[in-house]
């Protein structure tokens, strides 16, 4: 992240320079006010006769430099925002790119709510921290150094006031920093939980309503909200308790300066206007110290957020990119003694998987729930990597390919059909942005989606909202299949992605795939034998092992597990009819 700070260093330098000019203007004003009082009003140096010309000329000069100071302050703010906004923009893009490269396991470990918070709220906190550092540190530092010099130049007695007040202020800054640091870290974590609760509730709103779980969801949200509020309250209580103490120190210091100044004036050692200047300088110095507290508060929260951002950026991808760029592909897939288990789990999900899928072949995979069907096909596009053994595509270990070139050869339709905001056409063309209307129409016809799309008010240009919730499950599945087909990949994987289709539509879809995409290697994961009985071969998975792989007819003669599945499904169909 340092490189993004250095990338925009010139904005930070310009912001600091203009802030220096603004502070110099602020520091010069007490001198001019003292001159107006001493020479203009009291007439010191002119026999006690007020000098109207000094009042007017000094007042005009004050107005000019105040306007100049305002301009410098505006420019400082502009360049500060340019620095912090550009920095946060780059870091946000880096985080998002990193998240897109995460494996499914890494996404689950961080949680969606946490990743949202880290790419939005946390980056905003770091952005605010840098804005405070650039503007606040320069302003605070100059007020303290230059203000102290100016104050002591009036009389050395005023230096004693600073020496007493400063340690008290620094002590409070340290205490606030020490107390709030851990709380800010916990606060961001509580925001993660809140975001996750909201995201889950909104995404599953139909289920919540269907099962009348509004009260339960409200209670869980209220509990998460209470925990966040408690932490926030503790932080604000610590910060709020700081201000009265700071004001007491400031007021006592001002009283001390006025007392010391009055003694000097009575002794004829100081002009009355200098007391006014001294009080102003002291206020600037101590206000600068109070500003330091706010800077440290911002730094404390910013560092907690930066730590969370670094956790994302420094996360090593579980699936590492290869170097080989895929050339012409035939779509041949080979599993070599593959064993797979999910991270942080003890038991293997897949064991001793050795399987060859020839180019253009249709291989179906069937088995009970939890038998490892989805895990098997997830190894081909490298959503996960095999624990032992390896998977080949066109004679090369999939780990040798770049992820982009490998996944461009493999089109996958997952169990849950995810659609995105936009139109139906845009969702289908997502698989191939350069696809023409004829390519899209061909994929839609094969996916048996043409009829319902053309019945929509705007056809292909019908908006898709809320992840396609306005469409039925079967319609979403068919659009997702069309999206995969339009890519024209050599390998097509359907992971139980026709489960929401009726038998007639599903049969038409399978026939169209066999006819229109005969040269494409197809792997179809299914729960219903009726969906895949015409496949070239059917692999039967049981407890993570392939116990048989043959045609439907041969399996009906030789595989008891397959026969049991067929018999149970046939019995269910008869009972339903």
Automatic annotation (TrEMBL):
Record CDD domains: ABC_6TM_Tm287_like (cd18548)
PANTHER family the UniProt entry points to: ATP-BINDING CASSETTE SUB-FAMILY B MEMBER 10, MITOCHONDRIAL, ATP-DEPENDENT PERMEASE MDL1, MITOCHONDRIAL
GO cellular component: plasma membrane
PROSITE patterns registered for this protein in UniProt: ABC_TM1F, ABC_TRANSPORTER_1, ABC_TRANSPORTER_2
Gene3D superfamilies from the UniProt entry: ABC transporter type 1, transmembrane domain (1.20.1560.10), P-loop containing nucleotide triphosphate hydrolases (3.40.50.300)
Signal peptide region: none
Organism in which the protein naturally occurs: Ruminobacter amylophilus
Keywords for this protein: ATP-binding, Cell membrane, Membrane, Nucleotide-binding, Transmembrane, Transmembrane helix, Transport
ABC transporter domain ranges (all copies): 333-568
Protein name, as recorded: ATP-binding cassette, subfamily B
Subcellular location: Cell membrane
């Amino acid at each position: 992240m340092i490189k993004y700070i250095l990338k925009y260093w010139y904005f930070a330098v310009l912001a600091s320079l203009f802030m220096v000019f603004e502070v110099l203007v602020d520091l010069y004003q007490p001198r001019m006010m003292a001159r107006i009082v001493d020479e203009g009003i009291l007439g010191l140096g002119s026999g006690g006769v007020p000098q109207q010309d000094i009042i007017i000329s000094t007042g005009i000069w004050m107005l000019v430099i105040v306007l100049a100071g305002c301009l410098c302050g505006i420019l400082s703010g502009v360049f500060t925002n340019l620095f912090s906004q550009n920095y946060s923009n780059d870091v946000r893009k880096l985080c998002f790119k990193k998240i897109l490269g995460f494996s499914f396991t890494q996404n689950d470990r961080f949680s969606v709510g946490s990743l949202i918070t880290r790419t939005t709220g946390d980056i905003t906190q770091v952005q605010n921290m840098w804005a405070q550092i650039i503007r606040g540190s320069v302003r605070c530092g100059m007020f303290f150094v230059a203000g102290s010099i100016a104050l002591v130049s009036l009389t050395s007695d005023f230096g004693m006031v600073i020496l007493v007040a400063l340690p008290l202020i620094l002590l409070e800054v340290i205490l606030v920093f020490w107390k709030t640091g851990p709380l800010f870290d916990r606060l961001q974590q509580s925001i993660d939980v809140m975001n996750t609760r909201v995201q889950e509730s909104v995404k599953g709103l139909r289920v919540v309503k269907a099962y009348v779980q509004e009260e339960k969801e409200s209670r869980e949200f209220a509990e998460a909200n209470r925990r966040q509020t408690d932490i926030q309250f503790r932080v604000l209580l610590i910060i709020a308790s700081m201000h009265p103490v700071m004001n007491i120190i400031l007021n006592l210091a001002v009283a001390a300066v006025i007392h010391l100044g009055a003694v000097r004036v009575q002794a004829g050692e100081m002009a009355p206007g200098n007391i006014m200047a001294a009080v102003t300088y002291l206020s600037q110095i101590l206000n600068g110290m109070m500003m330091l507290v706010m800077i440290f508060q911002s730094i404390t929260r910013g560092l907690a957020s930066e730590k969370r951002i670094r956790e994302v950026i420094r996360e090593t991808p579980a699936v590492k990119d290869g170097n080989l760029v895929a050339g012409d592909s035939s779509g041949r897939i080979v599993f070599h003694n593959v064993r797979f288990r999910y991270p942080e789990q003890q038991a293997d999900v897949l064991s001793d998987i050795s399987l060859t899928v020839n180019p253009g072949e249709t291989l179906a995979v069937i088995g009970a729930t939890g038998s490892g069907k989805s895990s098997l096909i997830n190894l081909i596009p490298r959503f996960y990597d095999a624990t032992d053994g390896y998977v080949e595509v066109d004679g090369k270990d999939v780990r040798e390919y770049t992820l982009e070139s490998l996944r461009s050869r493999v089109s996958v339709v997952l169990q849950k059909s995810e659609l995105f905001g936009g139109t139906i056409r845009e969702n289908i063309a997502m698989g191939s942005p350069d696809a023409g209307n004829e390519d899209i129409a061909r994929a839609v016809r094969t996916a048996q989606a043409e009829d319902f799309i053309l019945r929509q008010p705007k056809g292909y240009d019908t908006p898709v909202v809320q992840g396609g919730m306005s469409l039925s499950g079967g319609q979403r599945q068919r659009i997702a299949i069309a999206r995969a087909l339009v890519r024209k990949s050599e390998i097509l994987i359907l992971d139980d992605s026709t489960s929401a289709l009726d038998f007639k539509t599903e049969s038409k879809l399978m026939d169209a795939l066999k006819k229109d995409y005969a040269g494409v290697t197809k792997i179809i994961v299914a729960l219903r034998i009726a969906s895949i009985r015409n496949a070239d071969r059917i692999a039967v998975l049981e407890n993570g092992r392939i116990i048989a792989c043959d045609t439907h007819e041969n399996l009906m003669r030789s595989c008891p597990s397959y026969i049991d599945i067929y018999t149970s499904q046939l019995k269910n169909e008869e009972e339903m009819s």
